[in-house]
UniProtKB/TrEMBL annotation:
Pfam families: Glycos_transf_2 (PF00535). Signal peptide: none annotated. The lineage of its organism: Bacteria, Bacillati, Actinomycetota, Actinomycetes, Mycobacteriales. Residues 11-163 form the Glycosyltransferase 2-like domain. One of its GO terms (molecular function) is transferase activity. Belongs to the glycosyltransferase 2 family. It comes from the Bacteria. Gene3D superfamilies: Spore Coat Polysaccharide Biosynthesis Protein SpsA, Chain A. This is Glycosyltransferase. InterPro entries: Glyco_trans_2-like, Glycosyltransferase_2, Nucleotide-diphossugar_trans. The keyword Transcription regulation does not apply. The chain crosses the membrane at residues 231-254, 266-288. Keywords: Membrane, Transferase, Transmembrane, Transmembrane helix.
């Protein structure tokens, strides 16, 4: 199906982006004819909303602070066939949008990730951001078993069935991590497209805090690993507890056979306690794994309620426009 027949909505989260938001809106409109651009003003104290509205965007307000809150609200509010999400700071190349949308439709895919490629080497990434991104990509790849090229990219295209099956719970910049993990555990068809990435325009200031946000994302990854890989997560602690238990108990057992006495009752008690805790950890992991499978089955059934991009339930083209 021709992408011009689809309802395409752009979601642009913004907090104090008056210096860049108008250009983001007009560039998207020029790159993708017919696109409906929604700018979500997230507690801005400048003229972000006015600039966006003057550029032709539909402006909505989200009063809960954080990009995750904006995305959750937008995914619930907007009805479309294709959703494009991009930051409002004009660091991403809007001219890549048609290729990303075409890739999604022709796949058909449910998630197309814009992998950042700097327009000018060494200019766009702040110190520590590129290294941190690589580390987090590696951690997520190892935990969830699938390589990630640019987990923290804010430039993505989604199908309707991805958006409507996504249970967004993150509040801030962890939302990109949650989107990535959702696409992996649901095993949706997805791919990546290189996109240009540049410095913010003059007068625009980054809201990212390298270490604060990095640790918050890492904490989210640990939490997601606990929920999505419970056997491995709890099994690791259970196995460590068993090993320590064996180390503590073995000398006492040997000593008992030699002198027929147990001179170190506290150590023996600690060893058996660790043995019990290890068993409980493994039991918890196995029970939670059963719950995880049920959650995934429910999420998959919700996902399958919607047709692939460009198709209606009867196989025809979707009509109407986003509301």
């Amino acid at each position: 199906m021709d992408s011009t027949e689809l309802r395409i909505a752009a979601i642009v989260p913004c907090h104090n982006e008056e210096a860049a938001v108008a250009k983001v809106v007009t560039d998207l409109q020029a790159a993708v004819p017919g696109i409906v651009v929604y700018v979500y003003d997230n507690l801005s104290t400048d003229a972000t909303a006015e600039k966006a509205r003057a550029a032709g965007a539909i402006v909505r307000t989200e009063n809960r602070k954080g990009k995750g809150n904006v995305v959750r609200r937008a995914f619930a509010d907007i009805e479309a066939d294709v959703y494009l999400m991009v930051d409002g700071d004009d660091t991403y190349d809007a001219s890549a949008a048609p290729e990303m949308i075409r890739t999604l439709v022709e796949g058909p895919y449910d998630h197309v990730l814009g992998v950042r490629r700097e327009v000018e080497a060494g200019s766009a990434y702040r110190a520590g951001h590129e290294t941190g991104n690589r580390v987090l990509n590696s951690v997520v790849g190892k935990v969830f078993g699938e390589n990630v090229e640019d987990m923290l990219s804010g430039y993505r295209v989604f199908s309707r069935r991805f958006v409507k099956s996504f249970p967004a719970v993150s509040r801030e910049f962890e939302i990109e991590t949650e989107l990535t993990v959702h696409s992996q555990h649901l095993r949706v068809p997805q791919t990546a497209v290189p996109v240009g990435f540049r410095d913010r325009p003059a007068g625009s200031e980054s809201k990212l805090r390298t270490y604060h946000d990095g640790f918050k994302i890492l904490r989210l990854i640990i939490g997601l690993a606990r929920h999505e890989r419970p056997v491995a997560f709890y099994g690791l602690f259970g196995t460590l507890a068993w090993i320590l238990s064996v180390i503590l108990i073995t000398p006492i057992v040997i000593e008992f056979y030699q002198i027929h006495q147990v001179p170190r009752f506290p150590t023996l008690f600690l060893g058996f306690t660790l043995l019990l805790l290890g068993s409980l950890a493994w039991t918890a992991g196995l029970i939670l794994d059963g719950i995880r499978r049920s959650r995934h089955e429910a999420a998959r059934l919700m996902y399958l309620r919607y047709s692939a991009v460009g198709e209606t339930e009867s196989g025809g083209a979707p009509g109407g426009s986003p509301r």
